[in-house]
Amino acid sequence: MSRLIKIVLIGIVALSFTACENNQTTSKKEVKYIASLPMPEWDKEAKSRIDNYWSQWNDAKTDPSAATKIGYAYSEELKDYDKAIKWYKYSNSMKPTGTNSNYMCYAYQMKKDYETAIKWCKNAIDLGNKEVYTNLGDMYFNMKKYDKSIAVYEEGYKKTKNTDLLTNIAYIYDEKKKNYKTAEEWYKKASTKGNMKAYQGLSYLYFSKLDKKIKSSAYAIALIENKYSKNSVIKILKERNFSNETIKKGYELQLNSDEFPIKYKGKLDLDE
Fold first, then answer.
1. Is 205 strand, coil or helix?
2. What is the Cα–Cα distance from 37 to 272, expressed in whole angstroms?
3. Whereabouts are the TPR repeats (predicted)?
């Protein structure tokens, strides 16, 4: 199962500063950066596929965020990681940023150059980027370095409070370490904060590993109208050969227990 999570480009804006010209007036001046690397050539063959990034071309001469956007286009729209890296390095030569380093880490990861990718991920952390914890943890997972992956996810959760990182830890204990009780603990840490992936994980864990059918039903039923339709959830529970009585008990459990911040309060409409 691939744990790589696609990085989403958000919030990259041109930097500016306000300078006082005198005691009475102020004006906004554009910051221009000077690159220490030559600007990559524009790929005319790729232009038709990333034409919306052409507007960044002139800005990229003095603006690292514009250069990063072009690199992102090569990475995510063309899957041309070599050219993406050229643009990221060019951007970095103007001004190193955590976002740029995180994207660089991802591009090297796609090239399976994990040693270089790790260096850029750690550089992103040093520059204050928080999204990188998911990226770095996923990479260690794909390298089968599960303890390192867990440590990164834990650190990332402390910094970001992203509960998906808790479910990632639970998944490793569940599927890779076969430590089901510890997996349960981590899923519950996420579920008590309303993480719906954790509800899915617990429902399947209780069904497939811990043989707790009522709890499995409860965590699945709690997702009705919160993530899935009633018909789809009931179908899954029936495919697990759960009786109507078990499903009803699961319904009552999720409805009345503080263990479930997410609940389904509607009717089940089970076939009797």
1. helix
2. 72
3. 130-163
Token pair belonging to 78? 């063309």
Note the pLDDT of residue 183. Answer: 98
Cα(56)–Cα(249) distance, integer angstroms: 58
Token output for 224: 């009705």
Helix axes 164-171, 146-160, angle to 10 degrees: 160
Task: Give the amino acid at 263.
Answer: K
Joined tokens for residue 68: 């990063």
CA–CA distance, 246 with 250 (Å, rounded to integer): 6
- Measured in residues, the chain has a length of 272
Give the residue carrying structure tokens 């001469």.
Answer: 61
Which of the pair, 231 or 50, is modelled with greater confidence? 231
According to DSSP, the residues that pair with 17 across neighbouring strands are 29
| 224: three-class secondary structure by DSSP | strand
Burial 61-90 (b: 16+ CB within 10 A, else e): ebbbbbbbbbbbbbbbeeebbebbbbbbbb
Taking only Cα atoms into account, the Rg of the chain, rounded to an integer number of angstroms, comes to 24
CA atoms within 13 A on the CB side of 212: 16
164 dihedral zone (left: phi>0; alpha: psi -120 to 50; beta): alpha
Map residue 201 onto helix, strand or coil: helix
CA distance 151 to 149: 5
d(CA 120, CA 134): 14
Q: What does pTM read for this prediction?
A: 0.81
* pLDDT tens per residue, range 146-174: 999 999 999 999 999 999 999 999 999 99
- Asked if residue 220 lies in contact with residue 236, where contact means CB atoms within 8 angstroms, the answer is yes
pLDDT tens per residue, range 217-233: 999 999 999 999 999 99
